[in-house]
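Re: that chain you flagged

S.,

Sorry for the slow reply, it's been a week of failed gels. I finally had a moment to sit down with the sequence you sent. For the record, here it is as I used it:
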Amino acid sequence: MATTTCGWCGRDVHMTQLNRQPSVQRETCGDGYVSDAAYRCDNSKCGRYSVVTWRTSYDPSESYRSGEPEGYDRAVIWSPPPIKRSEYPDVPQHIGDAAREAWLCFAHHAHIGACAVARSVIEASAKDFDIVVRGIEPKIDALAERQLIWGDLVSSAHLVRQFGNDAAHGDIVEPVTSAEAQDVLDIMDELLHQLFSTPARASRLAASRQQRR
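Prediction finished late last night. Pasting the structure tokens below so you have them in one place:
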């Protein structure tokens, strides 16, 4: 039994192997082995199937082996990959869906795509507040002028814009790193939190307090 983050439900769960032994092939170059095994998520609300691929210097199907990836094995890759499954209950659905798509790109190491989608999320968020000035740069500035975002989040949003512009306009000679893409998406989430989640939570809390009177 393996433990990982399920690529479907996003929970840290146990995964039950469907067959006792994995499918094992010799590597075409070298003396190693490539193994694949199917697993089912033990989360009762999920139960979806995933496949794990890993490389070893030994044959995992040998009778005294566990037949599962070990902590010392190389290049253990889950499909779908373990990803952050952010929930955006207070965000308009089309914007929340796009934000989740950005994280899906990140999980598949599509860092340029993740930055492009994050840029789109920020521009769509501005439009949701009836900011329709042409171009994303003045849209971010308008969010700041209306005090919808402030401080470091304004300059951070412009950084997301710049990374997204690089992706959209072909300025990709220097690849986006995983750390950079994660920072871009974290800023995207912070902006969504500021624009939608915080006001919605405050409204719910105020309504709840009013009912107590």
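What I noticed first: Residues 2-79 form one domain.

Talk soon,
D.
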